[in-house]
Design brief:
Elements (H helix, E strand, L loop, with lengths): L2 H4 L6 E2 L15 E2 L14 E4 L4 E4 L2 E2 H7 L2 H10 L5 H12 L6 H9 L6 H12 L13 H29 L13 H10 L5 H14 L6 H11 L4 H12 L7 H12 L5 H10 L17 H16 L3 H18 L8 H11 L7 H22 L25
Parallel strand pairs: 1-2
Antiparallel strand pairs: 3-4, 4-5
Helix pairs in contact: 2-9, 2-14, 3-17, 5-7, 6-7, 6-11, 7-8, 7-17, 8-9, 9-14, 9-16, 9-17, 10-11, 10-17, 11-17, 12-16, 13-15, 14-15, 14-16
The structure holds coenzyme A.
The site of coenzyme A has 14 residues, from loops.
Length: 408
């Protein structure tokens, strides 16, 4: 039975990347499995050119931001589509700091969690629970007052997420909670709560760089999921809960954990060659390499590699960096001609490890940073909203008989 016979009211054709050369809207719905060739939203936040290895936030090269900016400044840039003046940045920082603390009921909730809970399950639940304690967590509206409310909710979500993650980790480690310090920036405050001691400037800087690099990345799966949720005029807490749940999947946010597991598995630099060459011969994937969009060096990995070396040296983990570098050399020799290069996850694994962050917390770190991108996209969605409602291609039967139970 042809598609036309199944759904006579619409013509559904399958469009391949080669036949779809322009973004012009097709006259009839078409089937684009995985939506890889579908443009589903306007954004002014991040631009990606995968062939050239370019990522820009509001037109500014990611490498320039990683070297010169801060996470807070990047949040301002993404949300306002311009760099802040000093006064504007100070105002954003103060507003975020004022929202770092979480309600006592949320600390009590963390205490009730099993100590072996998967961190992303804990984070998803806690982000959702924050709405219960926010009197301003109503559904969205697209008028100016509604947009302002979405911005207030965004501020709270970005400010409180580090407190949720760090204190869940303390709970499962049997340590007392550490309340946020409102005099610190987001990166410093997170490490303070996580480790119970003030980080060195270099460590805080390392985390800050990772937060900048992961803050936004076009219409990736979790960002799309967040926009789908907010487009129904649900609230930001619901949209962020959707996004955290989507990020959790191993095809999306889990790769940096896999890199660390691989480095642990290899164990020493002497074992790198056999391990990597063996995997390549068996046509197995090397974690932290390749990207659906980037077919050149991932622009987020360039500065991170330099930084990972520094932090690994400072923290007595140079061995990890040297192993990583050797893995990179072997993979590039075998795969660079196919567009396989290290991605952002490869060197962020070493960096996070050196900052004292446990491997199974890496995806939560991704969520901590991407929360700003998710919120920014939801605000963009509200400013020009249309319900996101694609169609499915029905492949089942028609006019089937309903057999009574006794006859089945
Ligand atoms: C990210 C990823 C899913 C992209 O996949 P993709 O776009 O389908 O990759 P391609 O099909 O263009 O890959 C081209 C070739 O390189 C190989 N390749 C891709 N990634 C590879 C990797 N990490 N290690 C070894 N070989 C890899 C493919 O198997 C393919 O080989 P073939 O031509 O012999 O079949 C994939 O690279 C991957 O799984 N990487 C590891 C996980 C990871 O780091 N993910 C984080 C992304 S930020």
């Amino acid at each position: 039975m042809s598609v036309a016979q199944i759904q006579p009211q619409v013509t559904i054709t399958t469009v391949s990347p080669t036949t779809m050369s322009t973004p012009a809207a097709p006259a009839a719905p078409f089937y684009d499995k995985g939506l890889a060739n579908t443009v589903a939203a306007d954004t002014q936040m991040s631009f990606i050119d995968g062939g050239k290895g370019v990522l820009e936030y509001v037109g500014i090269d990611i490498d320039t931001l990683a070297r010169n900016s801060t996470y807070e400044e990047t949040v301002y840039l993404l949300w306002n589509r311009k760099l802040p003046t000093k006064a504007e940045l100070d105002a954003l920082k103060s507003a975020l700091q004022a929202e770092y603390e979480i309600p006592d009921a949320i600390y009590d909730m963390i205490k009730s969690f099993p100590k072996d809970a998967v961190p992303m399950h804990a984070l998803r639940t806690l982000v959702s629970a924050l709405a219960l304690h926010d009197k301003d967590a109503e559904s969205s509206e697209t008028n100016p007052a509604g947009i302002e409310r979405a911005k207030r909710q965004s501020l709270r979500l970005v400010a409180k997420t580090p407190t949720l993650i760090a204190n869940f980790d303390r709970h499962r480690s049997g340590k007392a909670f550490v309340r946020p310090d409102k005099s610190m920036d987001i990166a410093t405050n997170f490490l303070w709560m996580l480790n119970g001691e003030k980080p060195t400037d270099a460590m805080a800087k390392g985390l800050d760089i990772c937060l900048i690099l992961h803050a936004d990345h076009g219409l990736n799966a979790s960002t799309f999921a967040a926009r789908v949720t907010i487009a129904t005029l649900s609230d930001m807490y619901s949209a962020m809960t959707t996004a955290v749940g989507t990020l959790k999947g191993p095809l999306h946010g889990g790769a940096n954990e896999e890199v660390m597991i691989m480095l642990d598995e290899i164990g020493s630099i002497e074992k790198v060659d056999d391990y990597v060459k063996g995997k390549l011969e068996r046509k197995e994937l090397i974690m932290g390499f390749g990207h659906r969009v980037y077919k050149a060096y991932d622009p987020r990995a360039t500065y991170l590699k330099t930084f990972a070396k520094q932090i690994a040296t400072d923290t007595g983990n140079l061995r990890l960096f040297e192993m990583s570098q050797r893995i990179e050399g072997i993979v590039l020799a075998a795969k660079a001609d196919k567009g396989i290069f290290p991605n952002v996850d490869f060197y962020s694994a070493t960096t996070y490890h050196c900052l004292g962050i446990k491997t199974d917390l890496f995806t939560c770190m991704f969520a901590l940073s991407r929360m700003s991108g998710w919120c920014g996209h939801c605000i963009e969605q509200l400013m020009d909203n249309r319900l996101i409602r694609p169609q499915a291609k029905y492949n089942g039967p028609h006019a089937a008989t309903y057999a009574p139970m006794a006859q089945r």
